[in-house]
Each structure stands twice: as C-alpha cells, then as structure tokens.
Design brief:
Number of strands: 26
Shape: globular
Number of domains: 2
Structural class: alpha+beta
Largest sheet: 15 strands, antiparallel
CATH topology of the largest domain: Glycosyltransferase
Distance between the termini: 52 Å
Strand content: 15-25%
Helix content: 25-40%
Length: 598
C-alpha cells in the first residue's frame, strides 16, 4: 500500500446501529450496513485497490484539522487551502431515546467558509467486502449502486455525476458561503435506498446535535480528564447496538496488532466480558439506561441457557452464535497484514472469567437502581452455578490464547467474583439459590488463588496457578477486591509487573509464548488497570502518569485502539476499542476518588 495510513488517521461517526470510519482527507473507507456485523460496503481500509470509498474533499487537498462538535459524535473536518477554508461535517441521524429504528444513512455537509473550493465527490461502493460487483443506475438528483440484495443511493442535488469504472464522480465549484449536502442511504433494494437518502436529505443536523448533547450532559464526571472521559463515553455509546442493548468490542475487523502479521481478528461481536465492563464504566458516569438495556439482552440469553444452550463468550448482536472464521483472500489487509478474517473462532473457547464480569456489573446495577426482575435473576443465577460447577477446569483465559487450555489465575479470580456477587445479589433480592454452596466455592477459590496463584520465587501472582510467567491481569486482584491493595503480595506483584512488563511507561499483557507468530505491543487496558491500581494505592501522580501516557497516544479526535507501540506511539489493533475507552473512564474515576480522599 503506498503512503500507508495509520490506524490513528481515522475518525468515526455512528448511530448506535453502525459506524463509519473516515480518513483525515474526508474519505469514508469502512462502513458495514445495515449494522456493525454486516458485510462492509466501503472496504478501502483493508485494500487500497479493491476496496471502495466515499470521499468529499477539496480537489487541491490542503491542511486538515478535525474535531467533534462538543458533546456529540458529529465530526467536523476543516480543510485550509491556498484558495480558502472549507468545512466538511459528517454525521448519522440519531434520535436519542428513540433507538428502535435507524435511518441507515450518512450525511456529508460541505461549507465554504472563505475563498473558493473545487469540491470533488467520489462514490464507489464495493459491496460484500468487495466480493459483489455493483450496478449503477441514475435517478432524479442522484445515483444508486446495487447488487441482488443491497443498495446504496447517493442523493446529490446540484451535482453533475459521471458513472465510470471506479464508481461515481462529480465536482462542485463553490465559493464563500456556499453549502452542499450529500447523503448516502442504504436499503435492501434500490427504491428503499433512494427513499432513505431522500428522507434524510432535508433533516437538520440540530436534532442529532441536541440528542447527543442531551445524552452527554448526563455525565456526572467533572474532573480534569472530562474531555477524554466524555469522548470515551460517547464512543462506548456508539458501540452499543440499540435494538438489543448488546455492545460490540470494536466496529472493525482485521486491523493488525502486529503490522504485516497475522494477529488480525474480527471484533464486531458482543463479548460478555467487554460489554459488561463497558456498561460498568458507563454506570460510573451515571448512565444506567445502557446497563438496563444490556441486561435485557442478558435476560433474553438466559431463556436460551435455561433450555440447555451453552454459555458462550461472545454472541452476535441478536444473541445468536458467532460465525466461524473465514478468510477474505482477495483483500491485502491493512498495511499488508493478512489474513483478513470475518467471523471469530474464539467463540468456541471456554473462558471462565466472563461470568464474573456479568455478575459484577449486575450487582453494581442492582445496588444503584434496585430493580425487581425475576427472570434476569434466574439468568444470573445460572451464570453463578456455571462458575461453581466449572471453575476447577482449565480454559483459554482472558487473552483468548489459541494454545492448550490452562488454569489461568484471572479466570479463577472472576469465578470468585461471580460467586461472591451472586451471594450478595441473592441475599439482597431473595433469589432462591444454594447460596451456602456458592459461598463455599467462593471461599475455596480464594484459598486456591492465594496458595497456588502467588509465586514466592517470582514475587508475584502469576498468569497460571503454579506458574512463573507474569500477566498484567493480576492487577485485577485488588480491583475486584479479592485482596486489598495494601496486601504485600499485591504490592510486590504490582512492582514486578512495572519492572518486567512495562515499556516506556506502558504495560504489556504478558511475555508468554502464545502459539502465534509475531510480537505483542503494549495493551492499553493493562496500562489503565495500572493507573487504577496506583490510584487505589493513593499514588495519584503515578496513576496520572499511566493515564496520561495512554491518552497521549490517542489520535487528534481522542480515539484509541487496543494496543500502542511503545516506541512510536502508533495505535494498533481494532479501532476504536471498547476495552480501551472503558479503561480510560475507570482510571479517571479512580483518580478522582483518590484525589478527593487525599
């Protein structure tokens, strides 16, 4: 790929159904329709040559500055050229509490602030990950591209469009004060796509701005990291799938964790772990509606578990099984990183920690809202029983290692969390359960972790019971309150992780050989766990240092991916990443609490 973009070159806009990635030059290069896990319509993110895009920009380029309108997910890009200044505003209609339907459209408003602008428009959908050839048909004031089962219409009044081999092109000669709007609308058939684009064309952006700001104003955090916290909250909200309450780990697939390597995964699904941690972080900011919608989804999954369906680590947005991995051999991959994968084989893994994440979030939600939901409690009880029945088994662990199962300490720890929070919920709600057994199993797990999880030779809690390898997930021992942060074994673990797993002030997950070629960059969430732990130790300045180093890697609009190259600061992995943004929120809240206590 010539003049390779970095992952940080992208901003995103979304409507709680889907998200589009937009490059600095005004090119939409990734958009899955009609929802996060559907096939991509624009795929240039993963292949410059085969993957199409939708660009709106001044013909002669110029300097670029971007920002989100305050408190919103409305993106504004400013192009400064020799001919003048032009702004491009990108947004998807969002109606706040009315989340049951989506317009399935993106709006691109261009405005010449000063001077003149020759605005170029290129509209080149490449449906089904560039596997389906599109036909183009003209209609009054636009063009519609379509295949046998998908259509995307460009509604562009006052723009002369030419259809060629590389999609649709047009140029608008504009001067100061001129404005133009271009709308891309999606549908299963051409007439539906045209209708979607027409319907949105006349909609003012004000309603969407007001809806986002109304949501943002509910954020109860007002500390020194407010801008980063609010951007993270807005990103998590965009990653929520409104119809079901599920939350995707990221809106992309196959953005590499190792440039040119094979560590490329599809994250467009709902992990029980990631989603639970995300709603827990949002609850810390006062956003409880999102947690209730998520637990509606858990309650629906509970119906299936009661019928004998397996408890999976991840699901589609509807709560069905994630498809097995397939490889898109025709795509070169971001920065020539292959394979490009869709689907995720990790859905077949056993990862015992997931139940603890759900129960911890549920207990927090109950303490805040005191809901009375018998069916949800039955679903949660099923998860606690699962922890009691299975915690002694080996598993793939938090990091989804694709080698042999092992007795991962973090998995035992989160099974303890499931049982501990389950007992607390049962006592508070009157849930009929064998709480004596739950408490016994919780006590047993705690003893096993303390006796077998801590290595005196290493001076730390280790990745596996009886092992010697370090793992940053051991930082969660005080975060889950199994042991206090003042415990000498916890403090020595923190010191060893800082000494052995830290690069340039950022934390690695582990150094273990993990059955995959390539190398690991630092993992942003682990650095944020360290910030959280340091805050709980009252080391506020150290905590701020870790959080600041992560935030310094954020791109110009405050977005973060999963991993960070400690040497260059380059973002790696799928983007934007829920794990990282929820970690920013948790760390900022912990620092605020420690600062207030001090």
């Amino acid at each position: 790929m010539s003049a390779r973009r970095s992952i940080g070159d992208y901003a995103v806009v979304g409507d709680t159904h889907t998200i589009a990635l937009i490059a600095r030059d005004g090119s939409i290069e990734w958009w899955c329709l009609p929802r996060f896990d559907a096939p991509a319509v624009f795929v240039r993110l993963l292949d410059d040559d085969r993957g199409g895009a939708f660009s709106v920009r001044p013909a002669n380029g110029g300097a670029v500055a971007r920002e989100y309108l305050a408190g919103t997910n409305v993106l504004e890009t400013t192009f400064s050229t020799d001919g003048g200044v032009t702004t491009l505003r990108d947004w998807m209609p969002w109606r706040g509490s009315d989340e049951s339907t989506a317009a399935r459209a993106i709006v691109r408003d261009i405005h010449v602030v000063s001077g003149r602008c020759s605005a170029e428009v290129v509209f080149d959908p490449t449906f089904d990950y560039a596997r389906a050839a599109a036909r183009f048909d003209r209609f009054d004031r636009g063009v519609v591209a379509h295949t046998s089962d998908s259509a995307l219409a460009l509604f562009a009044p006052d723009l002369s469009l030419t259809v060629g081999h590389s999609g649709v092109r047009g140029t608008a000669e504009l001067r100061a004060g001129d404005q133009r709007r271009f709308v891309a609308g999606f549908g299963d058939r051409p007439e539906e796509a045209i209708a979607a684009a027409r319907a949105i064309y006349g909609e003012p952006v004000d309603a969407t701005i007001d809806a986002w700001r109304s949501w943002s104003n509910r954020c109860c955090y007002d500390g020194p990291y407010r801008a980063a916290v609010l951007r993270s909250a807005l990103t998590l909200k965009m990653l929520t799938f409104a119809p079901t309450g599920a939350l995707v780990a990221a809106p992309t697939t196959s953005l590499p964790e190792d440039l040119g390597g094979v560590r490329n995964w599809d994250y467009r699904y709902a992990w029980l772990r990631d989603a639970s941690l995300a709603v827990y972080a949002l609850m810390g900011l006062g956003y409880h509606d999102e947690s209730l919608r998520f637990f509606n989804w858990i309650e629906r999954l509970g119906h299936e578990w009661e019928r004998g369906a397996p408890i999976r680590i991840m699901y589609t947005l509807d709560g069905t099984a994630v498809p097995c991995e397939t490889t898109l051999e025709h795509l070169r991959g971001f920065a020539d990183s292959r394979p490009v994968r869709i689907g995720n084989d990790a859905h077949e893994q056993i990862q015992l920690d997931i139940v603890g994440e759900v129960l911890h979030a549920a207990h927090t939600c109950y303490c805040a809202m005191g809901w009375d939901r018998p069916q949800l409690l039955r679903a949660l009880g099923h998860l606690v029983d699962y922890a009691a029945d299975n915690w002694r088994k080996p598993d793939a662990g938090l990091w989804e290692m694709r080698g042999p199962p092992a007795h991962h300490l973090n998995s035992k720890l989160l099974c303890w969390v499931a049982l501990d929070r389950g007992v607390r919920l049962a006592r508070a709600t009157g849930l009929r359960a064998d709480t004596a057994r739950w408490q016994h199993e919780a006590d047993t797990i705690r003893a096993v972790i303390v006796e077998k999880g801590y290595s005196r030779e290493v001076g730390a809690f280790t990745q596996t019971l009886g092992g010697s390898a370090l793992d940053a997930s051991a930082l969660r021992i005080p975060l889950t309150r199994l042991l206090p942060v003042t415990d000498p074994r916890v403090q020595s673990t923190i010191a060893r992780i800082e000494h052995d797993l830290t690069r340039s002030g950022l934390v690695l997950r582990y150094r273990t050989v993990d059955a995959l070629p390539g190398t690991e960059a630092t993992f942003a969430l682990c650095s944020l766990w360290m910030a959280n732990v340091r805050a709980r130790m009252a080391d506020v300045e150290d905590a701020r240092g870790y959080l600041d180093r992560v935030l310094s890697a954020a791109n110009d609009v405050g977005l973060l991916s999963e991993e960070i190259d400690a040497a260059t600061g380059e973002l790696l992995g799928n983007f934007p990443q829920a794990f990282t943004h929820l970690g920013v929120i948790d760390a900022a809240l912990a620092i605020a609490e420690a600062t207030a206590a001090r």
